[in-house]
C-alpha cells in the first residue's frame, strides 16, 4: 500500500483535505468490491495534535510528523484561506517552520526514491518555502501564482493549469483541482477504469491538464452524468471479453436497445458497438505494454485473434 500523508496545519482548507482524501478512500472501496487489496493508507500528520480548519471545525488526533518515510509514501501539502498563508507573513509561526524543516530534512532527500510530493492549492507555497520546487514545473491557485514565483524564483510557475506533474512532484491549482489530481494519480496506480468509477461516484468530471496525453478510451466519454450510460460503460470496462450485443448492454442499462443507442450518441458521441471495440483495444494495448503475451492479452480483451485486433485498432485510431 501507498502511505498517503496529509500534512495538517492550522487553518487548513478543509476541502483541500477532504476532496482528495475521499477520492483515495473511494478507490480503496472500489478495489475491495472487486476483490482486490486497497491501494492507499490514509494518514494525517502535522506539527500539533489539534488543528482548527478553515471553516472552524477542529481536527484531532493528528499524528506527529514522522522521522522516517516508508518506501512508498505520498506527502500531500494543503492550502490555507487565500491571503492567510503563513509564507506571506512574518514572523513565521512555529507550526510552519517545524513543517518546513521536516520537509527539507526528511522529505526532500527521499523525493524520487519512492516518495512523491503532492500540493493542493497554496500548499505549493510551503513546498516552495522548503526549497522543494526549485527548477521544477509547478502551479497553484491563480491568486497565489505571483507569490509562488517570488518564493521559488527558480521554479517554472505555470498558470491556467488544473495540475502539473514534474517527476515526483505534482501540484494542483487549488480547491476542487485537488480532486482532479487525485483521480489522475488513482488512474496511474489502479487503472483508468477504476478512476472513472471513482469520478462517477463523486459526481465530478474527469479533467486533465493541457500537458497530459489524450484521454485513454477507458476515460473518454465519461464526462456526463447519465446513470444508465455509466452502468454500461463500467460493465464493459470490467468485462471486456463478454459478448456485448446491443441487447446485452441495454439490459445492463435497463432501457431499450434503441434508446441506448440514442443515449450513447447524445452523451458519449459514438455508438455502443464502437465504444465496446475501443475499450477492448485499450485493454489489449495496456496488457501488451505490461508484458502480457499478445495472444493472451487479445483473448482477455475479447478479440478472436490478431487480425480482428489490428482492424479494430485501425478503426479506433483518430487518423
Your description of this structure?
The protein has 319 residues and is of the alpha/beta class. The protein has two domains: 2-193, Class I glutamine amidotransferase (GATase) domain (Rossmann fold), CATH 3.40.50.880; 214-316, Homeodomain-like (Arc Repressor Mutant, subunit A, Orthogonal Bundle). The protein contains twelve helices and eleven strands. It has helices at 14-33, 94-107, 123-129, 145-151, 177-190, 192-202, 227-238, 246-253, 257-267, 272-289, 294-301, 306-316, and strands spanning 2-7, 40-46, 51-52, 58-59, 63-64, 73-77, 115-119, 137-138, 156-157, 163-166, 169-172. The strands form three sheets. The protein has a seven-stranded mixed sheet, sandwiched between helices. Strands 3-4 form a two-stranded antiparallel sheet. Helix 5 packs antiparallel against helix 6 (192-202) and helix 10 (272-289) runs antiparallel to helix 11 (294-301). The protein is elongated. The model has no long low-confidence stretch (mean pLDDT 91).
Mean residue pLDDT: 91
* Number of helices, counting only DSSP H or I runs of 4 residues or more: 12
**Structurally, how many domains make up the residues?**
2
Spell out the CATH superfamily of the largest domain.
Class I glutamine amidotransferase (GATase) domain
The percent of residues in helical segments reads 40-55%
Number of strands: 11
Given this structure, which CATH class of the largest domain is correct? Alpha Beta
Give the overall shape, derived from the CA principal axes.
elongated
Write the CATH fold name of the largest domain.
Rossmann fold
Structural class: alpha/beta
N/C terminus separation: 40 Å
The fraction of residues in strands falls at: 5-15%
Query: Could you say what the CATH architecture of the largest domain is?
Result: 3-Layer(aba) Sandwich
**Radius of gyration, whole Å:** 22 Å
Could you state the oligomeric state of the chains shown? single chain
Strand order of the largest sheet: 5-2-1-6-7-11-10
Provide the succession of SSEs.
EHEEEEEHEHEHEEEHHHHHHHH
Task: Name the poorly predicted regions.
Answer: none
Biggest beta-sheet profile: 7 strands, mixed
